[in-house]
Amino acid sequence: MIDLVIFDCDGVLIDTERHCWTADAALLTAAGIAISEEEVARRFTGISFKDMYRALEAEHGITLPKGFHETVDAAIRAACVAAGPNLAVAGVADAIARIRQAKCVASSSNPAWLERYLGQVGLWSVFAPNVFSAVEVTRGKPAPDLFLHAARKMGVAPERCLVIEDSVPGVTGATAAGMRVLGFTQTAWDPKTHGPRLIEAGAVATFDDMRVLPALVREADLS
């Protein structure tokens, strides 16, 4: 039985990932860390910016300039604002409305980001105050901490939670938390190759269209 559906945010509720890939690849390359959008997408989707920059600095022996994160953040935010309500993943608002279980968000993004962009697409009021950020736990994804934190806050046992994730770190963390996971592939760099990666990480199934999500949740609830 499923009592709680936990949604990741970026790449599941809002289609921000492509803006992140573009800004990071361009600005990292300009700073001396040559990297493509595809590599950023493949390696770091679902990982916090802090952890990504730390890993790349170590690999390349480069210290990124002071204020680098703020520069990238400004570029991403400008692109997201320009998208307006179209920043929402297609069909997600209707899918959420058709799910009868309790719902919350568990995201690697910071609280200000979550409120700003979920608000932009009309979803903040749907989830708040049940929006949980990785800043609230010691370890972010792929550790299970954030998912377990969300379940505790919502008063639901992990085995009665269903997680909707688009990243390997997210699927890994939710699976480690003892939760079932559906992998969403529509916003991936290459949806066809991303699905098998999510299954390998522990997703019980994948899907690429939010219109089918309510049926998938009902199916999980009966299994």
Written description of the protein model:
The protein is of the alpha/beta class and 223 residues long. It has 2 domains: 4-15 and 87-222, Rossmann fold (3-Layer(aba) Sandwich), CATH 3.40.50.1000; 17-84, Putative phosphatase, domain 2 (DNA polymerase, domain 1, Orthogonal Bundle), CATH 1.10.150. Helix content is 49%, strand content 12%. The protein is built from 11 helices and 6 strands. It has a 6-stranded parallel beta sheet with strand order 3-2-1-4-5-6, sandwiched between helices. Strand 4, helix 9 and strand 5 form a beta-alpha-beta unit. Helix 1 (17-30) packs across helix 2 (37-44). It is globular.
Mean pLDDT: 94
Structural class by sheet pairing and helices: alpha/beta
Total count of helical runs of at least 4 residues: 11
Major beta sheet summary: 6 strands, parallel
Entry keywords:
HAD-like_sf; DNA polymerase, domain 1; 49% helix; Rossmann fold; alpha/beta; HAD_sf; catalytic activity; Beta-PGM-like; six-stranded parallel beta sheet; 223 residues; 11 helices
Please describe the topology of this protein.
Layout: E1 4-7, H1 17-30, H2 37-44, H3 49-60, H4 68-83, H5 92-97, E2 102-107, H6 111-120, H7 124-127, E3 131-133, H8 145-154, E4 161-165, H9 168-176, E5 180-184, H10 191-201, E6 205-207, H11 213-222
Parallel strand pairs: 1-2, 1-4, 2-3, 4-5, 5-6
In short:
By secondary structure, the protein is of the alpha/beta class. The chain has helices at residues 17-30, 37-44, 49-60, 68-83, 92-97, 111-120, 124-127, 145-154, 168-176, 191-201, 213-222; strands at residues 4-7, 102-107, 131-133, 161-165, 180-184, 205-207.
